[in-house]
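=== RUN LOG ===
request id: a7f3
mode: sequence -> structure
chains: 1
length: 170
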Amino acid sequence: MSKIVHFMANNRILNMRVNDWILLMPSHLETYLMARQIRLLRVAVLGAEEKDPLPQLIADVIRRVRQAIGSNVKNRLSDDPRLIPVELQPTACALALEALQSRIPPLRLSQEQQKAADVAREQLRAIAQGEIRVSRPRYPAEEGEYGNSAAMVCLHARRRQITAQALSGL
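=== RESULT ===
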């Protein structure tokens, strides 16, 4: 049975099941940033004439997370292409912070944040390979709608010239 969480949004009380999928917001990243990094981010974004890169970076990370989920036929995607499983919020935030750092060089990631990004990439690989399952969305997409029923099949491969046996005498 799912635990129900109550929270306020636009002066309404919303009920959200813990296993519901979420819309990743820029405010979620603040949980994973240090105060110094938040100041650098605000100065870099507000001081520059270009628009805030964070929404586009988050959208890119969401697509990356959904691609990993959808690449395994056992997983289902939400019908809303902006949503990810709540349990992958830390994963998505770690990848978004890493991408943000590449856009804003003064924003330096700590060793823990760099390690979190490495762990996030490994977690997405494991999800894609079926080693980790994600929660099912309340409103799943139609099967195959986002590619989660597709599989890659190798029809032809060249014969290997160099093998472990061929190199055993070296």
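=== NOTES ===
The radius of gyration is 20 Å.
The CA atoms of residues 71 and 151 lie 7 Å apart.
=== END ===
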